[in-house]
Amino acid sequence: MNLGSDLHTETVLQASPLQPVCVQIDTPVRSALERLQEIGRSAVLVCEGDRLVGIFTERDALRLLASDGDLNAPIREFMASNPVTVRQTDSVETAISKMSSNGYRRLPIVDDRGRPTGLLDASGLIHWLVDHFPSAVYNLPPVAKPAMHQREGP
Predict the structure, then answer these.
(1) What is the C-alpha to C-alpha distance for residues 105 and 38, in angstroms, rounded to an integer?
(2) pTM score above 0.90
(3) Parallel/antiparallel/unpaired status of strands 43-48 and 22-24
(4) pLDDT digits (tens, 9 = 90+) for 77-89
(5) Could you give the CA distance from residue 39 to residue 35 in angstroms, rounded to a whole number?
(6) Which residues are within 8 A (CB) of 122 and not within 5 positions of it... i.e. 6 or more apart?
(7) Strand pairing class (80-81; 86-87)
């Protein structure tokens, strides 16, 4: 297999995307957090009707809780609006590039009308890489104390 070729030709659908979990824009944050806990996920997609308008992640929840925000407020007040997305036909390379350049761990997958069809996460991409290039991944030498160039998150 050729890493560059596979990254460029295989689509995000081959990187084990998750089924989208959506809430409406007026959903109280408390309800969204309960939903996340029920399903064991770290993000919900926020929709207006059937169209994606935002994403709410555990980072957003931590910011809200740290600022003593109102858990009964609508999720639209705390979500990230107009999230960066990929389409089902986008390549794995495109997804990795968007995630890497923006520091995202998840990307919503949308159709041509902006409706969510999946959620691509870093875990799915890592599994895809391991499945396609096991010798490159498993033969990497361990790094005892990797240098952190910047802290995680915004």
Answers:
(1) 21
(2) no
(3) parallel
(4) 999 999 999 999 9
(5) 6
(6) 99, 105, 106
(7) unpaired
